[in-house]
Give the backbone structure.
Amino acid sequence: MKPRKKYLFTPGPVAIPKHILALGSEQPPYNRTPEFSDFTKEILEGLQYVFQTQGSVALLTASGTAAMEAAVLNLLDSSDKALVINGGTFGKRWCDLCTVHSIAFEEIELAPGCDLDLLQLKKTLSAGDFTALLINAHETSTGHLYDIESIGKIAKQYNLLFIVDAISTIGADPFFMDKWSVDVAILSSQKALALPPGLAFVALAQRALDRLAERKPKTLYLNLQNYLENQTRGQLPYTPAIGLLVQLHQRLYDIRSVGLENMCIDHENRAFAFREAVKNLPFRALPDRLSNALTALVCETIKAFELVGELREEYGIEAAPSGGGLKDTLFRVSHMGDQDEAEIKELIVGLENIVHSSKRTQQERIN
């Protein structure tokens, strides 16, 4: 029997374009050559374009969490006090990193999907002696997109080092690192870049670079200064994921060819079409501000984890469940990666069938 086709609508990993997958099957080149150095420099220029920055970008073979940890380890110490915006799983991760590395912090904890009150932010900053502000531009666990442009203005007003996890927003939503006064931005490969997991990037504006130069390294592998110094000659201090870099190089070329703005518009169109298609189903969007990267839906008549399981078992479709207190109520559908109209239609049909079947079952129980 021919295996059933699998449809991937999770917010990382996402479906990868076939020509990018093909590159992953090729023999990786040797990396300690002048040709590979030129190749690496082209990647770094492409990443500057993606981040919309004139700053430097450290290229890590690591996960997005490792890049977050690199930012904390390299740029914060016992003399700092951070304010963390905690709106979910990944906001809490900033808290966990600060705790592990003994960085003093306070948090503004938000209910799932709720926006940050900018007046409350100013009030909190005025009352505390903070040196850094840490946030996730898009809280992937709830689908909420923060107003990073406005928050960046406030961070600048209070002279804070503004560190932003932009992992699941860059490429799907507009993000202008320099224009929005972001000092450090973080990205990884398995979201809108539509690559396999395994690469992460830390972009640093001049303010962050100045601070980095003043700090004594606390880590070997995640020493960002070491990466930046080696990258000036087109090399990395340790053996990188060379095959992934080959795929990244092509993907960055593709993005430049299409244009970053058009890439975001494509995600916006996908998100709008999906939300319109399911608006008559018993779901409602959770977040106050929606990202183009994914749609987080609250189920009103069926348990969310059961719905996700049925999509997988009956239709070969992977959507993203939630955990903790949101397990029964929330599921997420990604609009990132290599998706086409036919696949999206399969998803919508699956959701419609599951909802209608659930209604019939409930009616039969009543009768």
